Amino acid sequence: MRKVLSPTLSVNAKSYMWGEDLFKIAKHCEKVAVETGLTVEIQVNYCDIRKVKELCPHLVIFAQYCDDIDAGNMMGGITAGMLKEAGADGVVINHAGSRPITLHQMVNITRRAKEAGLKTNICVDNAIEAAMVAHLHPTCIVVEQNDKIGTDQIASEEYIEETIAAIRAIDKDVLIAQGAGIRTGADCYRNIKLGAFGGGGASGIFKSEDPIATIDEYVQNGILKAREDFGVKELYTLDD
């Protein structure tokens, strides 16, 4: 059993990087996890899940998408069972940068993922969506304003407080992440201080001149500082 602890570091490769280049980043994240004891979550494309799992046994691996299908005759379809068998620990659902899904599909994908033994991170844009999604009781609700994704603009404190209150009115235990616009360790620290269980980034890391150096800056000035100031909490466990 692996314990997932807060504060966590999240590294989202999106479609910025894959293959050997991604494996270098993943192995550095593995080194960070082993040397610091931090939980490091990495989101990678389907093709690289199995290899990252083999190279980096200490990382928590999330797939970036799942189709609303069971095993069958759909060409190119991605089922929750495929992701689990490939080595994914969880799946990201409803990200603004992914293929759009309906509310009906979101409900089904969440159910299918849970049945397959995957953790579920559902993305929302605002407090209304956050409250709706809280009724699905996912592992985590990722709150990020769509128009700030990929920018250097982070959410206001008022937005964070509003979305957290909307979620907590429905589900007092679901994990909450705050994303979009994160560029520094200080951004990670600030979001954790305001109620997020961790911090990290996608474009802030992978579009930087040196992604490994950026990850280290997030760790030293954000995640580790938050751990020192706010302590450690066990979030859930994963079966090996």
Give a verbal description of the structure.
- The chain has 240 residues and is of the alpha/beta class.
- The protein has one domain (2-238): Aldolase class I (TIM Barrel, Alpha-Beta Barrel).
- It has helices at 19-36, 49-55, 80-86, 103-116, 127-134, 157-168, 185-193, 203-206, 211-230, and strands spanning 2-6, 8-12, 40-44, 60-63, 90-93, 119-124, 140-143, 175-178, 198-201, 233-238.
- The strands form 2 sheets. The chain has an 8-stranded parallel sheet. A two-stranded antiparallel sheet has the order 1-10.
- Helix 7 (185-193) runs parallel beside helix 9 (211-230).
- The longest helix is centred in the C-terminal third of the chain and has 20 residues, at 211-230.
- The termini are close together.
- 45% of the residues are buried.
- The model has no long low-confidence stretch (mean pLDDT 93).
Specify the helix fraction band.
Answer: 40-55%
What integer is the average pLDDT?
93
Sequence of secondary-structure elements: EEHEHEHEHEHEHEHEHHE
**Strand pairing plus helix content: what structural class?**
alpha/beta
Let me know the largest β-sheet: 8 strands, parallel
Summarize the topology.
Layout: E1 2-6, E2 8-12, H1 19-36, E3 40-44, H2 49-55, E4 60-63, H3 80-86, E5 90-93, H4 103-116, E6 119-124, H5 127-134, E7 140-143, H6 157-168, E8 175-178, H7 185-193, E9 198-201, H8 203-206, H9 211-230, E10 233-238
Q: How would you concisely characterize the structure shown here?
A:
With 240 residues, this protein is α/β, with parallel strands linked by helices.
